[in-house]
């Protein structure tokens, strides 16, 4: 039943889908249930309350849609905008590119602000556009919090400040797919109108729930948004929320129980501790990359991502070979370079339910692979650099003190 | 972790989500994997080939979309039709009603043919409409194969014959949600252009895959269909099919392995034997209903459904009370009456991976509940009627002879 | 991976191993752990406390030995007795026979009191023996609480009364394999010195833990008992109990978590409610047997067992054929007749985590099988009789009211 | 349900119970079954055949006893020997000590040959004893193949040669608990009479099966062995082998399916490849220890163990602190020093279903812990040494080439 079995654990370091904790796998190990019985609504109610916490919102309205991140994007856009609406959108890597492609196909008027892959969103241009937009033709700003293809984290707080500075009413729509529940994300404080993520990312579940959270302003906008939508229509959910049955169509029973378990683990660890752990793993990875003498695809420290690191390889090496070798020889799954950076970078995902020793095993593996493909790495160098930092910073496990 | 635990097995007799076989639960009991590694495409390829078999098509193109039945509907419609297109659609119960609602909200011009709930689609009216439609304004016929709310199975073969008789080019779009893999369904033979089902129905998986299969004619139609679509766009899938990587966005690893196991079980039993088993269970249920002196919501034998039986209760009984009591006292999950038949019918789902003794336990439970709510049933009568039929018709389990 | 797959659930009605509840299967779905870490002793401590509750003892000392019921027997005997010691032991069926065989092979002087298979232990003879034993040559009374082969429950309270009446100091060793946690069992009240059961019986776990509970008097006896023992030696456990590490050798991590979950479910339902449920299922089964016109192997009502019913078949039927047909045609697992009653009885186990509708499915199946093998049963008759009783006696599920 | 949850995977590096592969966890995720149905004997038959392969015997008779290693020891001894029989037994660490304790309590006349902990069995003394034993008073040689407490592997081939050289008929009883299925073990070639292991060791299952394999000579010896035994009696098994039902008492259904899956994985990898993998992991661990400037508890290279490495710490460090810190801060489970070497060594288990990157994560963790406890380790040094060796020696994963 495994198509290509290898001994020992698979070391899963793609930036999603990520490792599922054992307690979550256990919670999902169950038969179907009638979702119209009182049991599922009772649980759903707790989920909706708790999902708000990971978005850091008290005023937002969450939707748990049986879809992927791509569907969550579509839900965010079609519920708040009308065809022809002007959107400012930032192209900084493969996933922002795909979102922009979707925006265009959904018939919005997309004002693309492009950066080099490896740079963050150009917020100076955003400032200019906002300044110039006296008539408020811009209906929404679409931005990925963390570009998974290049390991770039954008400064959302500054986006909010710019909007406020110019008193601009545009909606702020944020792709938090590889950030929410791993990076510091503050929906209410940053005035995000729609934020979204996928269950298979930092929540450490299987793929299958697109989590979308809408501000009051976004809900208001949905009343007049003319984009055609049915499956992704928030209104169908809101109707069932009022009835207390919650589901306009059949949810995955297993994923609901899985989400319940995943949230329980996150709250047991503490959301801020989860974020600190990601910060630790990100920093350790970057120290290793530096020790190897390799460059981070991310061009400035301010954009460094704590959930994924895209590593640039020297021109004489094909990064695809690294990913292939990792899987074929070491049972290690790394992320490919995508599109513009194909062959040029490989990616180490360090998000989700992951600890330091897992990462160190991965880093040791990367060192051997680098040697395999002819890069003159000093074996142990990256691990040593990471360990030197980690040994001073890993906290005790609270439940074990 | 169970919100409302009761001793023993839950007896799950809603018409979806249905019981998952243990081998399928086992197959899904796994960590995530990198879906871009060679393993997942290798498995996906076998799935796409095998999914065609359950649609009984050799020429169709299947799509396994991370969505529910509602999403599968949307995929069928938006890929083949343009806003304003005229559709003939049959309203015979809650699920056809919901599909029609979707069709209208997607801006099609829906020509609704309504029947009493409990009757099948009025194909005489279809004949009239086709006869009258010399200019071929009808672009598609939308029909549910099996209306889950009333337990009515429509005669698809006759729909095809009518289309052929009038030489009408309309697309034939079929909701096979509660039929495919349980009832006799023949995509190629009946010239169905788009057929669809959901993983949580006869395939006996969790919710999460909308399986959609398109004929060559449907694929051709998708090239000019102007409905806006991105997440549900077949074209994105086709692009990745060509690349051999298969997935435009992240699938659920667990559901893929689950589907692999589910198909293996179905083929081990034999698809035709699976269908015979459903026919046996449907017949047995109807014999029990008759023995109880109750009426089937389905008004004529030609429409009797082998996957769900909606049972009419006398006016002095609220069928909702039956469903509630089943769950609260007997750990039995029955289907509610929906919308027009709320309070008037309760439903026994008999689809998916289910055997005769499971059904008999359910029927015995229903007898006790009927007595609980004041209906003068003769205890044992339904079970006796069902057993008399089953005892003569259950085959030996092939692997155990 | 299933050697002989059949569609739907297997209906497991052998009197052990019994159905495992889903939450328990989930709890065991885990990797190994270091049993010397602080986690396992912490859990073990709660288990030992809670296991005492199912024996209804506050003063006993429990042992959770990685073995089967056969090993638990050996543990009970070798820790309390010396070779040559006189034991009074009751032979009333296959399992008491096997225990007696073990007693003899362990070199005890076994004074066997035999009854017809289908009768309980002859306590009148016990009374005589106790009366005659002025010098207290009898060191122990060995008795099964419930003989699984014939469905006979012995009156332990009367055994205690006899011992007390004669002021006899013999140890009272009780096989509670198919009783404890299902029948009314009171270790302290009845002055039982060693009681034992297996995890795969009423606790509804996999095989693998022999649960043995020793009174203070039994522990005292163990100090002078000369039977050679190492693996089964209580003293090794007691040593590690004192250290707080609890395990003299490696336990099954999975079974410990499973036992934790199993006990949680039992306490959630309430042990007395669990016992009432068994009483209900036993009674319902006997009513069905009566309605079929068949005889219970158990000859008097006072011995009727609420965990297993052995059904006598007419001489012209081979009961083995019934069991075979059940499995081959109906995916139903019934118990064979063993040894003296082979071919003459089949057994319906109704113990463990089981509810009424499961049992009714089984009873309906048995009716069809009886017809298959040529017995002129009135189909529905047994189910009707059982339902008539159950419908008046099944309580609401407390968590669902 | 986890008593002391920590984020990420637990890194399990105790020398048993070891990591269970996901496919094996999956295979065990199931309900109970009737073990008297034809299915379980059919599977058992394949297991008995395949278990012989991991012992490298074609003539031996295997027993899969529901017990632990301690029980397997008892089975080996009591089936082949009589009280008072002279045994030569080697005391070289905690587990050989415990076995000797058992031998003494089972009333054998144990001739103990003691070595320093860290040395192998003193075979020179064995030679002397054999040479002197003209009357063949020595009935058995008992020896651990691999002493788990000190990481010492004994030379079994030399033991056989000595026996042959002196034409001595003593039985050769081998504890292969931490060797079989991981180290090179050859039952037939080395003339081993009883070999045994536990399921939770190299087979990578939960605890619960004691696997014992008896040579024809051992079976012959069992006919006259006078040790009292019932639960562990081979004869009961042999009786049921002949009947084709295989089980004298209830086995764990889950462990049987688990063993089936475990053997399938081992044969897919190839037993010799499994052994090579262990050799690789052992060598890598020793290179790391050397790089850290620490000593192996094992005093000579000829005794180095490829399944467990006991590392001596400097006198100013308490090795218990290392194990505690590993668990409390790094979610890493290491083995404690036991008895004579308590506080002086910690152990790294590297057996079972484990790959190189898992080990490297552990080694990186150990480096940080060493620093935590004040040992001046050069971070990265051990990992570098291990990687330098591994990078040249890890083969491609055959299924992925």
What is the secondary structure topology, with strand pairs?
The structure is a homotetramer of 401-residue chains.
Chain A: E1 11-12, H1 22-28, H2 39-55, E2 61-65, H3 69-80, E3 86-91, H4 94-105, E4 109-114, H5 123-132, E5 138-144, E6 146-147, E7 152-153, H6 156-165, E8 171-175, E9 194-198, E10 210-214, H7 216-224, H8 234-243, H9 253-269, H10 271-291, E11 295-296, E12 308-312, H11 319-330, E13 332-333, E14 345-349, H12 356-372, H13 381-393
Helix pairs in contact in A: 1-9, 2-9, 5-6, 9-10, 10-13, 11-12, 12-13
Question: How many H/I helices of chain A?
Answer: 13
Q: Residue share in helices of chain A?
A: 40-55%
CATH architecture of the largest domain in chain A: 3-Layer(aba) Sandwich
Q: Oligomeric state of the chains? A: homotetramer
CATH superfamily of the largest domain in chain A: Type I PLP-dependent aspartate aminotransferase-like (Major domain)
Compressed to H and E, one letter per element, the order of chain A equals EHHEHEHEHEEEHEEEHHHHEEHEEHH
Shape of chain A: globular
Give the strand line-up of the largest sheet of chain A. 2-10-9-8-5-3-4
Offer a few descriptive terms:
homotetramer, 2 domains, 401 residues, 3-stranded antiparallel β-sheet, Aspartate Aminotransferase, domain 2, Aspartate Aminotransferase, domain 1
